[in-house]
Amino acid sequence: MGFPDSVTVVEVGPRDGFQRETTFIPTEIKIEIINALFNTGIGQMEVTSFISPKAIPQMADASEVVSAIERRREGLRLIALVPNPKGAENAVRSEVDEIRIFVSASESHNLSNVNRSIEESLMGFQEVMRIVAGHEVAVNADIAVAFGCPFEGNVPSEQVRWIAGQLLALGAEGITVCDTTGMATPPIVRRVCECLLTAYPELDLGLHFHNTRGIGLVNIYEALNLGLTTFESSIAGLGGCPFAPGATGNVCTEDLVYLLHELGIQTGIDLRALIKVAKRMEEVIGRPLPGQLMKAGLRLDLHPFNKEVRK
Amino acid sequence: MGFPDSVTVVEVGPRDGFQRETTFIPTEIKIEIINALFNTGIGQMEVTSFISPKAIPQMADASEVVSAIERRREGLRLIALVPNPKGAENAVRSEVDEIRIFVSASESHNLSNVNRSIEESLMGFQEVMRIVAGHEVAVNADIAVAFGCPFEGNVPSEQVRWIAGQLLALGAEGITVCDTTGMATPPIVRRVCECLLTAYPELDLGLHFHNTRGIGLVNIYEALNLGLTTFESSIAGLGGCPFAPGATGNVCTEDLVYLLHELGIQTGIDLRALIKVAKRMEEVIGRPLPGQLMKAGLRLDLHPFNKEVRK
Q: What is the DSSP string of chain A?
């Protein structure tokens, strides 16, 4: 098996997970969870979104959250999602290291998501890049529904490649392709990634999978076989699917890290500490979350053998 | 990707799933579910266990269930689990096509499970084989905890191979290695399967994985890459883990079939019909079950695009 030696796990729970929670999570709880996550060894995290509080009240405390995050290690990367120039202005005033812009691979999803055409979104990013210019902040871009669109179905790889090219031309340093509604399968993962990497062999390519149809980790396994090394996931599997009430959303971070470690792939993350944060997250959210490992425990945490069983 | 063209999915929900339910499921409901499952195109199913009603009251209606199953197609294979000679006597009087004997790969688990040493279990199977002799019923064998034991941890592949050899010598026609508590990982799957197939290249080898730690389908994906073609799973993911309350048990049949079909592997199973049975199972059991696909729907079952979204 030709797996990479190490992988970067990008935690997205505090943004993608919290964002879907309708009850406001107190700012100090958000900060507690984010600090605990960084303390497990996670190096990159989407910590918030600089979006209108009217659109997503949950993210109204974005600046406050970012400023309270402890940077106990060198090189931590705080990432904030930014939907528009206004968000970019707020983000550059904060202390984030990376802003993340996003556009969908299908017109219908982009329209549904941000009420703009893909072209209009790309135009808007020019303004974002002007705002960011001169600030010490990286810009990366997400391509949503890159593995399938809930309105249009299959999305041509060439469309994803074209959008990636536009984003790179605008100045995005890296691209993350997102399986927003869990439509990716191993053959689609291979097709999209090979198309992108053939066009842009040096591309800093991240992958964001959902477990909506149960195969999120299989898709990651396929991507590992392709040599990819950056994966986004959410602690405890927090985050749902907007198109299927009750369905699972993001791949679960601790389940992913468990798989990676079992494959001999380094992450720099303390899995036991991660499980503790997952349990804390479940406590904070107040309902069972999809993560499996936190329920079952580590593989080699053995059970006592009751010799009395033989009567 | 060198996947097999077709795969046999062996449904185990009516045995492995029902068995763990403490509330008795009415016999007519069991029969309804089993018939519905066979009607989706499933060809092989563990339909019950001929075990003492004192040990597992849920299986007290084993004979009644088996005799009521409709055989609408040629070649359906009704499988019953049999723990001892008494169970074998009852099984051969029924109309099952295969009886399944079982032994653990670790002494502690075998002792815990059936209160016997592995040697004593193997001795008992000699008596089972004498009872079966002359009857038109196949005998296959399960090896439990073949990928790891909750009491002993890692299980040497050579131990699994030795037990497989003993079972084959006794007359078992095929062997299924079982990940009873979800300890398998892709490298362990590879190690155990390669060890068995090196020793017995013609072995009829089935695999039974659990999703206890979230990677059940990844293990199957690895096994597909090894060319294996027989997998056991449970409709809706019914069935828990005896060592981790709240944890998931068996891999979910419809999620597995979805993955297989998306890989271009044939199963002969109607996935939409399977999802209907999964939903019915959830209704019968009366609590949410782990299956993902039944909540999210098929990948290309698209959502209506609301053009009015753009105001």
A: ----SB-EEEE-IIIIIHHT-SSPPPHHHHHHHHHHHHHTT--EEEEEE---TTT-GGGTTHHHHHHH----STT-EEEEE--SHHHHHHHHHTT-SEEEEEEESSHHHHHHHHSS-HHHHHHHHHHHHHHHTTSS-EEEEEEETTT-BTTTBS--HHHHHHHHHHHHHHT-SEEEEE-TTS---HHHHHHHHHHHHHH-TT--EEEE-B-TTS-HHHHHHHHHHTT--EEEEBGGG--B-TTSTT-B-BPBHHHHHHHHHHTT-B-S--HHHHHHHHHHHHHHHTS--S-SHHHH--TT-PPPP-GGG--
Residue B277, pLDDT > 90, answer yes
For A209, phi then psi, to 5°, come to: -110, 150
**Structure confidence at residue A307 as a pLDDT band (50, 70, 90):** low
Q: What is the DSSP letter of B13?
A: I
User: Cα angle at B15 between B14 and B17, to 5 degrees?
Assistant: 75
Instruction: Answer whether residue B309 shows pLDDT above 90.
Output: no
Mean pLDDT within A79-84: 96
**N- to C-terminal Cα separation, chain B:** 47
CATH for B8-309 is: 3.20.20.70
CA distance B247 to B227: 29
**Cβ of residue B263 closer than 8 Å to a chain A Cβ:** yes
Exposed, middle or buried, A243 (CB in 10 Å: 0-12/13-18/19+)? middle
Is there a contact between A186 and B1 if contact means CB atoms under 8 Å apart? yes
The answer to whether the Cβ–Cβ distance between A214 and B295 falls below 8 Å is no
How close, in Å, is residue A256 to chain B by CA atoms?
Answer: 9
Domain ranges for chain B, please list them.
Answer: 8-309
Is A93 in CB contact (< 8 Å) with chain B? no
Instruction: Give the global pTM.
Output: 0.97
Contact A240, A247 (CB under 8 A): yes
Nearest CA in chain B to A183: B299
